[in-house]
Amino acid sequence: MPIFDFNRGYPFPDPRLAHPSGIVGFGGSLEPGRLLQAYRMGIFPWYSEGDPIIWWSPDPRMVLYPDEIKISHSMRKVLKDGYFRITFDICFRDVIRGCREQPRPGQNSTWITPEMTNAYTQLHDMGYAHSVEVWLDDRLAGGLYGVSLGSYFSGESMFSRVSNASKAGLIVLAKTLQKQGFAMIDCQTYTPHLASMGARHISRQQFLKELQACLTGRTLAGSWQQMKPVCYPFQD
């Protein structure tokens, strides 16, 4: 399979033409229209600072269905006790900064480059990228951000400054999106942490089929600040 050079102005190809590694191509730009086109096709950017933009569509794909979120006994207690307060879209820039600064084992640098930060901040300003904030008292203890289109949410990154903060944010996000009729949270690639919370692999073919169904729904564009988080006790 070829790896496409988007510096030559090529449009995104069918993601099923991706290299076995999951790479669709490299180069091009992160301007908002280009990013939204990529997400609608099941393609996302992921690269290190100093490298060209690399566009991916892995097979298999890691997804989390909102109704399959796993909540451990210990996390139920954390949520029941009201240890954290959860909000949406209150401080997107602080959340993406927290994700960028989060130490990650085996990684000496972050993939959330200044270029990526600017691109997703533009998407947020346009109403397509959203943040989940997890507060301990008045301190930002963790959070996550991603892109929403139709009934599909693509999670991009999360961080924790306090134990269990990002878990609480993901659980409340999943329960809230479930109530809003969302069908899928795209986790992109496997991590043990996400697998422990209910995310699982599906084939690229199945992912693309489900993505197209998600895109027929209405996009909840704009600020999510007024969206009320679904909090414990959950109606399982």
Would you write up a description of this structure?
By secondary structure, the chain is α+β, with helices and mostly antiparallel strands. The chain contains seven helices and eleven strands. It has helices at residues 32-40, 73-80, 92-101, 114-126, 165-179, 192-196, 204-214; strands at residues 4-5, 23-26, 44-45, 54-56, 61-64, 85-88, 129-136, 139-149, 152-160, 184-188, 200-202. The protein has a seven-stranded mixed sheet, sandwiched between helices. A four-stranded mixed sheet has the order 1-2-4-3, with helices on one face. The longest helix has 15 residues, at 165-179. The protein is globular. The protein starts with a strand and ends in a 22-residue tail after the last helix. The mean pLDDT is 94.
Structure described in brief:
Helices cover 30% and strands 23% of the residues.
Rg on CA atoms, Å: 17 Å
Number of strands: 11
Widest sheet: strand order?
6-7-8-9-10-5-11
Order of helices and strands: EEHEEEHEHHEEEHEHEH
Distance between the termini: 44 Å
Shape: globular
Q: What structural category arises from helix and sheet content?
A: alpha+beta
- Estimate the helix proportion, in percent: 25-40%
Q: Report the portion of residues in β strands.
A: 15-25%
For the biggest sheet, the summary is: 7 strands, mixed
Average pLDDT, rounded to a whole number, is 94
* Number of helices, where a helix is a run of at least 4 consecutive DSSP H or I residues: 7
Low-pLDDT regions: none
Instruction: Identify the quaternary structure here.
Output: single chain
